[in-house]
Amino acid sequence: MISKGCEQCAKGGKMVLFVYGYCDQRDCFYCPLGENRKNVTDVYANERKVEDDEDVIEEAKRMSALGTSITGGEPQEAMAKTTRYLELLKDEFGEDHHTHLYTGITGGRENMRRLSEAGLDEIRFHPPVELWGDMHGTEWEEILYIAREEGLTPAFEIPGIRAEPEFLDFLDEGAAEFCNINEFEMSDGNYRRMQEEGFELQEGHMSAVEGSKDDAILEEMASHEKVYFCTSVFKDAAQHRNRLKRMAKNIRREFDEVTDDGTLVYGKAFTEPDQFEALGVPEEFYTVKSDHVEVAWWLLEEMVEDGDLAEGEIVEQYPTVDGTVVERTPVA
């Protein structure tokens, strides 16, 4: 089974809204947050640091977001911001803008009500791994029913550390709607503690942990009709790439080429703009910057080859707000 939120994510249509990096009484050894996201009171919409409410709306428009995935830390102060952003998104994009929240705390009825009234659709609970297998009769079972009573779709989202049949029990009992299992991964923020716990990378893989796709997890859990196993390859090859493509399509200029990876390619010439006008280059094929001219990459190559320009470079960059450059190729 794949939820509506996951369907949108697979299309690259889910904006990731990170609200704070503090977790109440949680210090999971596998937490993937890096230094710029852990134990901070910052908000990010995708790669954009949010300075005001309009930044959230602008980032959603930049990628033609179908919905928003909210994650981060769990301080009570973050609740006010989260509900504010939910209200903003629903006001701007309407009820079809699907939202889900990933949380490591139960929260209680009042918080479930506030989130529901603000427009949240799904809530995905991530119980501490040390409680797996012993959650019946606890607040983790109770909150599933409370969330549903308050109008939310309750679910679990957990890392693929080990197979745990109790999650399947909650699905069969109707307490949880679905369970997402994320392939267990190492990151810059957790690899030291992961190794201390005895976990290692899969051979030939940049992030997936050895054993995260073992037969026990796949056979005992992922074969259930209400369980979805999300691999690290899928996150990179589909979710992330498709999100970049959506951005690139929206912000590309007439002369930018969009690659299969969702990056933008263009040429960069260090010359006076008058030269382009003198050569009769149509205005839609170049843009004048403060110290250079950006132009269609193929036109730059032609101009250098014909001797109209001495040199230049072809630039490939992400369509994100920070415009990170992937590669520069000299042309001379």
Automatic annotation (TrEMBL):
Kindly give the Gene3D superfamilies that the UniProt entry links to this protein: Aldolase class I
- What Gene Ontology molecular-function terms does this entry list? iron-sulfur cluster binding; metal ion binding
Give a yes or no for keyword Iron in this entry.
yes
Q: Is this entry keyworded Coiled coil?
A: yes
DUF8061 domain: which residues?
Answer: 262-331
Keyword entries, A-Z = Coiled coil, Iron, Iron-sulfur, Metal-binding, S-adenosyl-L-methionine
Q: Where does the record place a coiled coil? A: 234-261
Entries under Pfam families matching the protein: DUF8061
- PANTHER family assigned to the protein according to its UniProt record, in alphabetical order: BIOTIN SYNTHASE-RELATED PROTEIN, RADICAL SAM SUPERFAMILY, GLYCYL-RADICAL ENZYME ACTIVATING ENZYME MJ0021-RELATED
Q: What is this protein called?
A: Radical SAM protein
